[in-house]
Design goal:
- Helix 3 packs across helix 5 and helix 6 runs parallel beside helix 7.
- With 261 residues, the chain is α/β, with parallel strands linked by helices.
- The radius of gyration is 19 Å and the shape is globular.
- The protein is 41% helix and 23% strand.
Length: 261
Amino acid sequence: MTGERLRIERMSVRFGGVAAVRELSLSIAPGEIRGLIGPNGAGKTTVINAITGEVPMTQGRVLLDGDVVSGLPAHVVSRRGIGRTFQHVEPFGELSVLDNVLLGVGRHAPVPLFHAAFATPLARRGEASAVREALGLLERFDLVPYRDTPAAELPFGVLKRMDLARALAARPTILLMDEPTSGMSESEADRAVAAARALAESQNVTLLVIEHNMRVMMRLAHSVTVMQNGAVIAEGAPSVIQRDPAVIEAYLGEEAADAVR
């Protein structure tokens, strides 16, 4: 991994008199899987919301492949190649799992309006290709049995897998994942992590992952950044982070640190 896919320079975010993020700087290489951990209230989700343009930064800037994207509207940031999943999934509840994932595919493979309106051969070929791609993602995330199920009827763990598939369907350059395995069983989390990592490697997608399941994080991440009170307190390989005294005191605790070794 060489160069920089995402660069954050001195990011600060304030809500009134509260500093949610304090002069955070971060550099993530293309194809890297970076973990972002810390206690509740550390500012992790605020970092993702600031990257995607959903909350304004007080200072600093965000660069994607060398281009400044901070200050752009959220939908423009998304079109530039920054995707995300949500801690609390926001599906189109009345649509099937397949149709939800197809919406992600359509973001990188839209059919021109004329061809779509008149069902031209181009439109039919585009639709068939999109369905094949979406079905491939359903298979990767063990979602084929749910393909025709409305998203509103899914158990939470399955909904989280659909959210991952839908986000990756848009072929983002970098995907920001907010607690992607919450609500999953251990075996579901293992399969979802393996699928996400395989797709990231095959498509050279960079991942920034917030995750409280430390077993998942230790298997998934190439490197981990640790936050407390809006600031970075440690950074390094997972094996180094889990032995860092400051991280153990602030977040892991001795018992949890021993459990993931």
